[in-house]
Amino acid sequence: MLRSPLTRSRAVNVHDQFLPHLSPEDAEKWIVDKESYFREVAKTQIEPVQGLRELMRWIKRRGIAAAAVTNAPRPNALMILEGIGLAADFAPVVIGPECSNAKPHPEPYLAAMRKLGLQPEGRQSILQLRATQKAFLMLYDRIDQKTLAGDFERALGDMVASMRRRDYRAASESYVHLSIGNSPWPIGVTSVGIHDRSAREKISFSQNGQAHIMNDEGTRKILFAWKRLMTWIQAAYPAQDKSLAF
User: Fold this and answer.
1) Hey, how many other C-beta atoms are within 10 angstroms of the C-beta on 208?
2) Which of 57, 90, 174, 211 could pair with 183 in a Cys bridge, judged by C-beta atoms 3.0 to 4.6 Å apart?
3) Is residue 70 within a helix (H) or strand (E), and if so which, with residue range?
């Protein structure tokens, strides 16, 4: 989906960085004209991201309310939603700069929930949502850049296949195996004195190079986010056979 590269909340920075020769009033007019030109050009080129329409159909079938939260100027946001034919599916539309604090601050999300008649479960839920979003962006980047470890990629594929069958026990077993590994973990203090313990290296390496994938901080965040997704999917699509639940 196309987006305007410069939002209204960044107007001051735009003036300082790119238009210092203009007065604040002329710079403001330039920004307004730029956004108008963007809408004129973009409205014939907009395509929804892959899977968005299917997701919205899934949401509507279950009677789930949806809102759009964005930092884009309101005319841009409405133009994009109308251009992809989903304006009616996202009501209300909350604009971050119209709130006291724009995204990524939780306030616009909380405002959307209030407009939908929902009560937030607490700040911790918002923080977990943001952490999950960031972790999946990190996962997408690794996939695009082909830097995702082969074992990790295969394990994720196994978990997806298991969840499609609603075999959440198998998915959980794959998750545990990926995150913990199958090599013995030496227990005890590892770095006391001037001599290394003979088994210390087993904490970091196994047959495939790692005893447990949690050595990498980025991967740890991805795994935690993946587990939250698995928990949500099991609640949304419960297993018909209770023996497959976890």
Assistant:
1) 13
2) 211
3) strand 68-70
The C-alpha atoms of residue 26 and residue 188 are separated, in whole angstroms, by: 67
Confirm whether pTM is higher than 0.85.
Answer: no
Neighbour count for residue 94 (Cβ, 10 Å): 24
**What's the CA gap between 6 and 24, in Å, rounded?**
16
Q: How far apart are CA 119 and CA 138, in angstroms?
A: 30
Name all contacts of 102-110 with Cβ < 8 Å and 24+ positions apart.
102/9, 102/71, 103/69, 103/70, 103/71, 104/130, 106/130, 108/69, 109/69
Structural contact between residues 178 and 223, judged by C-beta atoms closer than 8 angstroms? yes
DSSP for 102-157, written as a single string: -TTSSHHHHHHHHHTT-----HHHHHHHHHHHHHHHHHHHHHHTT-S-HHHHHHHH
What is the pLDDT at residue 38?
75
State whether 110 and 200 are in the same domain.
no
Residue 204's domain spans which residues? 140-188+195-244
Is 61 inside a domain boundary?
Answer: yes
- Please report, for residues 15, 69, 114, the alpha-carbon distance to residue 178 in angstroms, rounded to integers and kept in the order given: 49, 35, 39
Closest CA to 160 of 210, 229, 214: 229
The SS3 of residue 68 is strand
Q: How far is CA 70 from the centre of its chain?
A: 14
